[in-house]
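Good morning N.,

You mentioned wanting to compare the apo and holo forms, so I went ahead and generated the holo version with magnesium ion. This is what I fed in:
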Amino acid sequence: MTSELTSAIERVARVPTLLVSADFDGTLAPIVENPMEAAPLPEAVAAIEGLAALPRTAVALISGRARADLAVLTGLSPVVHLVGSHGSEFGTGFVDELTEDRQKLLGDVERELTTLVGHEPGVRLEVKPASVAVHVRTAARDVAQRVAEAVRGGPATWPDVVVTNGKEVIELSVITTHKGTALDTLRAQLSASAVVFVGDDVTDENAFAHLDGSDVGVKVGPGDTRARYRVDTPHDAARLLALLLDTRRGFLQA
Ligand SMILES: [Mg+2]
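and this is what came out, ligand included:
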């Protein structure tokens, strides 16, 4: 951790109301081949639960995963806010909020993707409440390339379909939300004085873009980013959260 990042963490820990937010996969949980075997690092869980238990401190995980999967995989206590599907899912029963038109569009997208790429080896379709994700992590590179082209030239071009490109995944959504708008909503709901956001993927860039002055954005791993700070691995991210917890606890007790 650089001394600039340490200073930023020590500074943001002292704001009146703090929102700590993070992505899940590749940020709190190391990337694994089978996504349903992803597990958060115990150090990250301890820091997150610790922060969530502090007064005037809220914690939210904002993930591309379906919220129900996120709940099972993280096993966090209910005081931690879980936001799924890149900011589309704030609570349960979400699918009822989709209009009939959008539910039909989602069904059409799913059918088209199944026909177009569902048979490709190593490709997995994940149907979520407002989107379908095409995962190519376990596909051969030439297959992944062919699938990406088919998706981008196919239902990705349909009206009202929103495309999100992640690491080894292309997601087609029928509503327009992203992690940045999710962060805005949480910030307003919680009246946060400042926000910390930690994330590793291209979809996290929308969140970094919605940070300002006193906020702290931390990118995990390599790649271009709009985040001001960077750490190398999920283990580093866990250490950063632990430092934030220690500093804020000390500040609140003083
Ligand atoms: Mg991630």
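The domain at 3-93+177-253 is CATH 3.40.50.1000 (Rossmann fold).

Happy to go through it together on a call whenever suits you.

Best,
F.
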